[in-house]
Every structure is written in C-alpha cells, then in structure tokens.
Amino acid sequence: MVIKCGNFTKISILILFTTFLVSSHVFAAKRDAEEAFRQGVRYYNLGYDDDAISTFTLAIEFDPGYEMAYYFRGLVYGHKGRDDQAISDYSKAIELNPKNGLAYTSRGLAYGIKGNYSKAILDFTRVIELDPTFAQSYIYRGDAYYATRNYDKAWEDIHKAEQLGAEVDPRILEGLKKASGREK
Questions:
Q1: Residue segments in the chain with a per-residue pLDDT below the cut of 50
Q2: Whole-prediction pTM value?
Q3: How distant, in Å, are the alpha carbons of 53, 93, 104, 115, 165 from that of 49?
C-alpha cells in the first residue's frame, strides 16, 4: 500500500515541526528566565545589588514580559538611589500587569522620594482602588498629602489607616498635628 503525501500534508508537517521548535525555544527561555530571576532574588536578599541587577536583567533578556523581574530590578535600583531607573522598571511592571499593587506602591514611594507628590498620590490612590483594605497605602498617601500641605486629606487617610488596624508612626501624627493645628 502506498500513501501519497501531497504538498498540503508536507506543509502541515513543516508547520507542526516549526511550531514544536519555536515552542521548545520559548519554554527553554522561560525556564532560563525563571532560574535567573530566582538567582537575582538570592543576590537581592544577600545585599549583592549589582549582581542582582545583572541577573534580573538577564531574566528580562530571556523573557521580556517577566513582570516580577522588572519589579525586583526596580527595588534594587531604588535601594541604590537610582530612582529614575526604579520608576522606569516599576512602570514596565505596571504596563505588563496593571493590577500589580506592589509596583504601584513602590513607584509611588519613588515619586515621593523625588518630591513628585502628585504622581505619588495617583499611584497610592490606584493601590487603594485595587485593594481598599491595604492600610499602608492610606498612610503613604496621607504622607504625600501632608507633604503638599493638604492636611485635611492627610488626616482622612491617617484615620482610614487606623480604622483598618494600622499603627501610625507617632512621628507622623505629631508632625501632622503640629502642621495642621489639629489634634485629629
């Protein structure tokens, strides 16, 4: 018995084989990205910032869509005082996952360090929209409102954080009392 193999079948086999090769390459790249990411986290935890940055960068090269590699590299950049690079990486993590509250929080803190309180407030507000029970976001946003001398909104956020069970640093409360002329 002879089985004839027409052009359509040959093309189908070629497409299947090519798909297999591409899938194998993508799988290997993702596996390599995950291993590089885990090594980057180890370096980060040990305080080897430059090694962590290099290794997170490698993870991103293996998988440009690796959201958490951008986030962690941003953390390391922030730790090194390279706030613009940190903000860039947090922004990329947010672009890849618009529901990444950690990236919004960290970017908001970096904006605050740079004195860009309006952007910090926007990021903390987004975190609150994503998780209204995350008390620390109210404290961070309250602190940004305090920095912009919007004491009423700062008090609102501090009260909300306390309602959610957060302990507010007494220094924040004292500063807010003194600046606003209010007790609560």
A1: 1-8, 13-14, 16-17, 20-26
A2: 0.83
A3: 6, 19, 22, 24, 34
